[in-house]
Amino acid sequence: MRQCGPTLTPVTFDVSIPTNTAVSSLRAASDLDLAKRCCAGEANAQRDLFRREKRRVHATLYRVLGNNTPEMDDLVQEAFLEIFRALHTFRGEAALGTWIDRVTVRVAYAHMRRPRSRVVALAVVPDAPSSDPSAEDRAMSRDALRRLYALLDRLEARQRIAWVLHVLEGRPIAEVAAVMEASVVATKVRLWRARIAIDGHARQDPALRDLVKTPATGEEE
Amino acid sequence: MDPDKKVAVTDLSEQRWMRIERRLFERVAHGEADLSTPRSRVEASPRFRMAGALVLAGAVAAIGGGVAWRALTGPAAQAVVPSRIATESTGSHVSVGEATLDIAPQSVVAVSGDDMNGVTVTLEHGRVECEVPPRHGRPPFSVQAGAVSVRVVGTHFAVSREAATVDVNVQRGVVAVTANGQETAVHAGEQWPPAVMVAESAAPSAVPQMAPAAPSGNVAPMPSAAPASSSPPPSPRELYEAATRLEAARPDLAVAKYRALATKGGPWGTNALFAQGRLESERGHVGEARLLLEDYLARYPSGPNAGDARQLLSRLR
Torsions phi, psi of B179, nearest 5? Predict the structure, then answer.
């Protein structure tokens, strides 16, 4: 233990702080190891992967689809089954999280392309206490989101996914392209088409303006 | 803007996550995550779809393109939404507005109405477990099972139906069950009909009162009845699913079925041993649950539910 007193001896702590590169390599090695254990059929590894990534998968599905759709449980399961099936192709070149996003987006895409077979989806309007000063704001924000997703429902599935990943999740275009397994040019075209469809409505709807604002990612579209 | 502030993700409840995890790993245990499983269309990436589409584009672009575009962008948004769900071997979890329905395997339900006008869930067969938040004065959420109607204020409950036999099991809150014009309040921890009434309804003469449409001669046997000697013996999977369906209404019987299956071993025996332990823990039989879960872990330390078993055990301790 370090002592305090009139004669202070300099104490040197040998603490080496890992650099970003070192942290990335460690993470990549750990991801690859986890993937290999899952592929080998290790139940504990599969469960670890599920518990580590379940909220990431859910958040991507939620933002793309707009709510906890009636099929959300099945979609999360489907995404993880696809992840387990395809894990042998994971080489650790990208972060496991990004690779998982790619599979999740495929599941969302397939879901949107399927003929609708869900039960009546009713509006989810949680009751807010009237004394809460922010209740009105929250209600307005919920309404805006509902209008936004009604607009997104009219878009082609790939345009919608590209727009959500870029505008709502704030991902750079290159990353959106990687997640969607498309070229950067094709992704820009999808974003441009989505924007044409959405911006017209947003101009007349102040509540939508903030939501549809393009994130500052330092890119030119 | 922080994307989290643009669209805040509403997380699923812990109970729902546990259910997803349980079902996912049951499916994994049954080989659905194997590479040998036929690849679903999900795995065909958008890029490969595009490549395939380009090959055909020259021939069909002029006519088919316009038609396909309209089909994709036009009426899809207003597609007719069916509201009848028939589950097969895996069951399904759906939400209806703020309420969630956990539909057991081999069940059929139909949903009508909406939050503003009231929701009616018609249970045609099987079992449905409902979690319904408080209605706050909105029109009621009700479940109709044959001649029995269950009106909900805000609660968690399960309804099972085997032909004319209907059971209601309330985990939280209160529901009003109406049968033969008589309304009965069923509170948390109670079931309807009460045990005495169940014994009476097993007699054929009592059943037509429950559901006049079903002639007494066609009434299905109670789930405990043995299958007819001429029919083939049920598979372990069928036995497991039958036990699952009985969990809410007849947990004792479900435990007995799981126990019988567990002694036979095999993949379904493994699942049954865990299910027996889980069910005992849900029933508050802590000692029994611990013994079963410890037995499961001793026999199948890397079994499909080993993680769940450890988690449950740590909670029971």
Answer: -145, 135
Beta bridge partners of B14: none
Is the CB of B1 less than 8 angstroms away from the CB of A213?
yes
- The pLDDT assigned to B53 comes to 54
Which residues of chain A make contact with B27, given a CB cutoff of 8 A?
A: 77, 81
* Alpha-carbon distances of B39 from B61, B185, B265, B284, B304, rounded to whole Å: 28, 50, 30, 42, 23
Which amino acid appears at position B22 of this protein?
R
Instruction: Enumerate residue ranges in chain A where pLDDT < 70.
Output: 1-27, 115-139, 216-221
Residues of A in contact with B300 (CB under 8 A): none
Query: Tens digit of pLDDT for each residue in A101-143?
Result: 999 999 999 988 876 544 333 333 333 444 555 666 666 777 7
Q: Compute the distance between CA of residue A199 and CA of residue A208 in angstroms, rounded to an integer.
A: 9
Residue range B99-113, pLDDT digits in tens: 777 788 788 888 877
Query: Tens digit of pLDDT for each residue in B247-268?
Result: 877 788 888 888 888 887 788 8
Model confidence at B211: pLDDT above 60: no
Burial of B315 (0-12, 13-18, 19+ CB in 10 A): exposed
Interface of A with B in 15-54 (CB under 8 A): 42-44, 46-47, 50-51, 54
Best probe of the B interface among A67, A75, A119, A180, by most B CBs < 10 A, is: A119
Please give the ipTM for the structure prediction.
0.77
CA distance A95 to B167: 50
| Residues in B touching A82 (Cβ below 8 Å) | 40, 42-43
Partnered with residue B141 across adjacent β-strands are B119, B152
Measured in whole angstroms, the distance separating CA A85 from the mean position of its chain's CA atoms is 21
Domains and CATH numbers, chain A: 27-114 (1.10.1740.10), 130-221 (1.10.10.10)
**Tokens coding B226:** 């043995």
What is the rounded distance in angstroms from the CA atom of residue A198 to the CA atom of residue A148? 8
Domain range summary for chain B, segments of one domain joined by +: 84-205, 236-316
Contact assignment for A77 to B307 by CB distance below 8 Å: no
Chain A residue at shortest CA distance from B97? A122
Question: CA of B231 to nearest chain A CA: how many angstroms apart?
Answer: 34
Q: What are phi and psi of A156, to 5 degrees?
A: -65, 145
Q: Which residues of B177-188 are buried (b: 16+ CB within 10 A; e: fewer)?
A: bebeeeeeebee
Residue A83: the pLDDT is 94
CATH architecture assigned to B84-205: Sandwich (2.60)
Return the H-helix or E-strand segment holding B244: helix B236-246
Return residues 48-87 of A near B (CB < 8 Å).
50-51, 54-55, 58-59, 62-63, 67-74, 76-78, 80-82, 84-86
Q: What is the DSSP letter of B222?
A: P
**Optimal mutation site among B19, B30, B32, B42, interface A, most CBs of chain A within 10 A:** B42
- List of chain A residues whose C-beta atoms are within 8 Å of the C-beta of residue B296: none
User: Which residue does chain A place closest to B28, by CA atoms?
Assistant: A81
- Residue A134 to chain B, least CA–CA distance (Å): 15
